[in-house]
């Protein structure tokens, strides 16, 4: 198990994956621009929001950046639950930003900005991105503040902590092939449905942003619950249980956001990250107020 972990979740492997993803992202961006050019010249005919504006081409490389963020989430899972949750927040933020690039071609520059659905959604997404970015900054500040204390305390129960870390490593290793299969399945279903839609002149996939990531966050909920249950073996402290339970609730709220659209979608996403931040904030305050913590 250690050899597998060292091969697939090492710094060297991470850097290799990063270079590959960057190369694919740049290539996909140029290809998407080429497709948009062909559509604008009536060389090919594709009816999609992603072919109306050159700015929409940013959607494609962003999709590959999201793939890399998913890999980083698995990469950080064995190290820290808080950092692992932070990566979830980064992923949902990038999904919102990617949605902005997708829908930007439908913006209508009009005095009726706040009455037009596409313009309103663009406004919601921009504001949501700013709020999420700020909340994630605060979240990581709290993680950094507690980092030194956690390192010292971990030494007290090193054997139990090491067992929990081994469990998280095992989950991370299993996650890699599961995510690959899930991604291939989602991509295949999307291709088949898109071809069928084109032939039938209908639209089945109304929200392309949900492809893969809706199932992905469902998988994360399962993982979060498993980590929560196993954490009882290694710590029975109240604030730890509440923190880990709160993180599960936060992930569930993110998952629920995929089932709704408009301002409710944005509110659920912001609410999920805000809830996670407040849980961590209160956890740290509780920990600081108890002398016999950890």
Please state the structural category.
Answer: mainly alpha
Number of domains: 1
Care to count the β-strands?
0
- Percent in strands: under 5%
Q: How far is it from the N-terminal to the C-terminal residue, by CA?
A: 29 Å
Overall morphology: globular
Report helical residue fraction: over 70%
Our Rg estimate from Cα atoms comes to 21 Å
Major sheet characteristics:
none
Average pLDDT level? 80
Order of helices and strands: HHHHHHHHH
Given as residue ranges, the uncertain stretches (5+ residues, pLDDT < 50) are 148-156
User: What oligomeric state is this?
Assistant: single chain
Counting DSSP H or I runs of 4 or more residues, the number of helices is 9
Short descriptors:
294 residues, mainly alpha
What would you say about this model in short?
By secondary structure, this protein is an all-alpha fold. The chain has helices at 2-8, 11-40, 59-76, 81-103, 117-154, 158-200, 213-234, 238-257, 263-289.
What order do the helices and strands come in, and which of them pair?
Layout: H1 2-8, H2 11-40, H3 59-76, H4 81-103, H5 117-154, H6 158-200, H7 213-234, H8 238-257, H9 263-289
Descriptive overview:
The chain has one domain (about 80-290). About 80% of the residues lie in helices and about 0% in strands. The chain has helices spanning about 1-10, 10-40, 60-75, 80-105, 115-155, 160-200, 215-235, 240-255, 265-290. Helix 8 (about 240-255) runs antiparallel to helix 9 (about 265-290).
């Amino acid at each position: 198990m250690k050899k597998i972990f060292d091969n697939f979740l090492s710094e060297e492997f991470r850097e290799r994956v990063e270079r590959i993803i960057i190369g694919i992202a740049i290539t996909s961006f140029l290809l998407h621009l080429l497709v948009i050019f062909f559509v604008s010249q009536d060389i090919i005919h594709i009816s999609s929001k992603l072919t109306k504006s050159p700015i929409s081409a940013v959607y494609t490389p962003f999709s590959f950046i999201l793939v890399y963020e998913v890999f980083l989430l698995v990469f950080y899972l064995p190290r820290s639950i808080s950092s692992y949750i932070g990566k979830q927040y980064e992923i949902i933020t990038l999904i919102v930003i990617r949605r902005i690039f997708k829908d930007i071609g439908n913006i209508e520059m009009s005095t009726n900005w706040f009455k037009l659905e596409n313009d309103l959604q663009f406004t919601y997404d921009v504001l949501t991105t700013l709020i999420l970015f700020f909340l994630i900054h605060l979240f990581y500040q709290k993680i950094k503040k507690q980092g030194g204390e956690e390192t010292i305390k971990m030494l007290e129960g090193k054997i139990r902590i090491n067992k929990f870390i081994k469990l998280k490593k095992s989950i991370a290793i299993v996650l890699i092939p599961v995510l690959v299969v899930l991604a291939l399945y989602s991509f295949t279903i999307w291709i088949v449905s898109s071809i069928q839609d084109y032939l039938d002149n209908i639209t089945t996939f109304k929200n392309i942003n949900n492809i893969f990531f809706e199932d992905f966050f469902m998988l994360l909920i399962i993982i979060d619950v498993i980590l929560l249950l196993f954490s009882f073996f290694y710590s029975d402290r109240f604030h730890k249980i509440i923190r880990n339970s709160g993180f599960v609730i936060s992930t569930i709220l993110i998952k629920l956001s995929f089932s709704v659209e408009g301002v409710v979608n944005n509110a659920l996403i912001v609410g999920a990250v805000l809830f996670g931040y407040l849980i961590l904030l209160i956890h740290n305050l509780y920990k600081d107020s108890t002398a016999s913590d950890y």
